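Extended Data, panel c. Modelled sequence:
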Amino acid sequence: MAQYRYHLNFADGQSASLVVETTVETAASSVVDAAAPPDWTRLDFQQCPHCPLSVDEVSHCPLALRLVPLVALGAHLHSYAEVAVSVESAQRLVSKQTTVQSAFGSLYGLLSAVSGCPRTAFLQPMAHFHLPFA
């Protein structure tokens, strides 16, 4: 199991941190209060056409659950806004001055790989070697 800490420092002085665990088992428990996930994370809310999951067996989309913190953080941001990002893992520290769009793109890729979604499951081994902004 690997852990990545994304630290974002915005031009207006605000900052935020997101921690991503690379084990699928921690997906729902580590990112959202399982008692009250947002309605848009329900599997029956615009379910992907080729999704193999059944609404009878799974109540919420695993990828949507992993995206909740990212959506909440980005709700008030402009994609073109500058942000200083540092990503910590056990192996390295990567820092970059970039845009919110680029930072979120890196995070989205990692979150997708470890979400538990059957369609992105083949990416999970790559999460252990995640290189932000590569």
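Residues 100-113 form the longest helix (14 residues). This feature is highlighted in the accompanying rendering.
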